[in-house]
Amino acid sequence: MKIVKWLDKSFEELALIILSIFTVVVIFLQVFMRYVVGDSLSWSEEIARYAFIWMIYLGVSYGVKKNKHLGVDAFLLLFEKKGQLIIGIIANLCFLVFAVVITYYGIDILSRVTRESAAMQISLKWVYAAPVVGMLLTSVRLIQNIVLEAVELKKMKEVLKERNVLKEETV
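Now predict its structure.
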C-alpha cells in the first residue's frame, strides 16, 4: 500500500525529473561531441525528441494532478462555490471523455506500429506509448479530482441543510 501511495504522490514528478535530466545530458553530450570533439552523435536528437514527447504527456497528467491545467477562471467568478464545483465536475468529465478517447485510439495505433526509429533502431511503439500512458494517467487523475469535488459538493450540501434546519428552529 505504501508503494501505491508513493506512486500516487510522486510518479509524474519523478518521471518528469528523470526525463528532463536525461534530455539535458543527451543534448549537452551532443553539443560537446559536435563542437569539442568534432563528431556528432547520430541518435541524440532522436532520443531527446522522444524524451520530450514523453515529458509532454506525463506533464498533462501532472498538471491535472496539481490542478494547474489551463482553464477560464473569469467564467467561474460568476458563480458561488457550489456552482464552481459543479462546473469543475462537468469540465473534468468532458476532459475525461477526451482522455479516454485518446487512450482508446492510442492503443489501437500502438497495436499497428511495426516500424523502428531511424537512428536508434528501437521500436516506435515506445514513442507511440507516450500518449496512451499519459492519457491513461490523466484519466486516473481526473477521476480522483471528480471524486474530491463530488465529496466537497456533498459536504457543502450537508452544511447548507444544517444551516436551514437551524434557521427554521430559531423562527
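The two ends are 51 Å apart (CA to CA).
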